[in-house]
Amino acid sequence: MTLSLPRPTTSARTRDRFLDVVRSLAIVAVVAQHWTMPVLAYTDGRLTTGNALATPGWWVVTWLSQVMPLVFFAGGGANYLSLTRGGDAKAWLSARLTRLLLPVLPLLAVGVAAPPLLRTLGLPEQPVELAGALSAQLLWFLGVYLLTVLATPLLAAAHRRLRWAVPLGLAGLAVLVDLARFSGVDYVGYVNAVFVWFAVHQLGFFYADGTLRRLSRRGALALSAAGFTATALLVGFGPYAESMIGMPGAPMSNMSPPAAVLVTLALGQVGLVLAARDALIAWSERPTVAAALGWLGPRFMSVYLWHMPALIVLSGVTVVGLGYATPAPGTVMWLATVPGWLLSAGAILTLLLRAFARFEMRPVPSPAVSPPSSARLCVAALCGATGTLALAATGFAAAPWPWIALLCGAYALTRVPARAVTSA
Questions:
Q1: Separation between Cα atoms, residue 123 and residue 125, nearest integer Å
Q2: Which parts of 102-216 fold into alpha helices (H)?
Q3: Which of 261, 283, 348, 403 has its C-alpha lying 20 to 30 A from 11's C-alpha?
Q4: Whole-angstrom Cα distance, residue 279 to residue 61?
Q5: How far is 52 from 49, CA to CA, in rounded Å?
Q6: Residue 241 to residues 33, 90, 231: CA-CA distances in angstroms?
């Protein structure tokens, strides 16, 4: 396989403050939602879990709090800007894959080593198994994003040649997959992990090349209204669930597997942030905000990977250890305890980041060190995606082959001195 670059854009700038703000606000929203929505209680050696957003009427919150469309949109814009700056596509892909894949290795080590240790300390089996499953569940994003990054050079070339036909075609394929899924072919729905998220990622290309940036505020709001209206129609008259996150006991989920309705949701959300673009950029230039964004940017993947283990540690101490039970969502007591809960989880996450964020913040390799070959980069992405998706589905207690796949992916990213490379 050979990698080719699309033609460079006219702008030499490879970072965009608006995309940085959107991505940072999205990861903060992901963390806040995951920390506030569990409803936990521990009785007779068994940890029970519920979801605060299952409260009647609260599903509407998920139309804004389900921010994975914004994560893929911002990722698409950032990937296109950096890829088309005129550098080597293989070096770009190597750097991206390394930044994504290596930070998961310490999480894998902790996920494998922690359960036996906890059992030795006398913790009951059920909460230990549940913790292992939950800490691996969110690796689905990393698996899908590895595939997205691997495909970015090809998607960027298709964007230059075919323009809107690419996201429209991907969205159309997502609809066909949903038709098969709702006709009884259940597992085919997981193919939409590619079609849905590639389509949203492609929208970011239209921001990066200036197309969406040229929208007026009124035009952006019209795009948002069209996206949310289409979402409402699909939910109201179609087979899709009201909630944009999976709910316990629900007959279907829009997220697992991802459904085509997430594409229209993405249009609604992207229109909103585009309408607020000038305000978001001005806000990001405040010294305190700029410092926070500067701190979060290099730790984006680490925050994503370790925020669930932080929640698990907090829950283990307070719920399992001290017998704390989450108050009924929406009550005065629940509202009063949420700030302390968030601060406690944040303190634990900070400690975890001090220990493990260094794996993401590794220095860029010297130009004297050649990137891996194209074939090895493909192996790295495919092994990494296979391992993370398998762990997301089965948890860290699964058979060891997902761990082996991840380690093979990391090994494939190993670089060698440029003078030792005879061919690319």
A1: 7
A2: 104-120, 125-137, 139-162, 165-182, 192-208
A3: 283
A4: 23
A5: 10
A6: 19, 41, 10
Residue 258 placed within a domain: yes
pLDDT tens-digit map of 383-402: 999 999 999 988 887 678 88
* Band of pLDDT at residue 364, cut at 50, 70 and 90: low
Cα–Cα distance, 113 to 123 (Å, whole number)? 14
What is the extent of the structural domain holding 321?
Answer: 17-420
pLDDT tens digit string along 94-125?
A: 999 999 999 999 999 999 899 889 888 888 88
User: Is the pLDDT score of 424 beyond 50?
Assistant: no
Distance in angstroms (rounded) separating the CA atoms of residues 102 and 406: 9
Predicted local distance difference test score (pLDDT) of residue 3: 44
Q: How many angstroms separate the CA atoms of 360 and 379, rounded? A: 20
Whether residue 7 is contained in a domain is answered as no
**Any domain includes 10:** no
Contact 365, 390 (CB under 8 A): no
- Strand (E) or helix (H) holding 370: strand 369-370
Q: How many whole angstroms separate alpha carbon 387 and alpha carbon 100?
A: 13
* Mean pLDDT to the nearest integer, 219-233: 98
pLDDT greater than 60 at residue 48: yes
**Residues facing residue 41 across a β-bridge:** 48
Helices (H), 209-253: 217-237
pTM of the full predicted structure?
A: 0.92
Q: In this structure, is residue 1 part of a structural domain? A: no
Question: Does the pLDDT of residue 369 top 90, yes or no?
Answer: no
Domain count, the chain: 1
Sign of CA dihedral 240, 242, 244, 247: negative
Task: Kindly state the average pLDDT of the residues 283-287.
Answer: 95
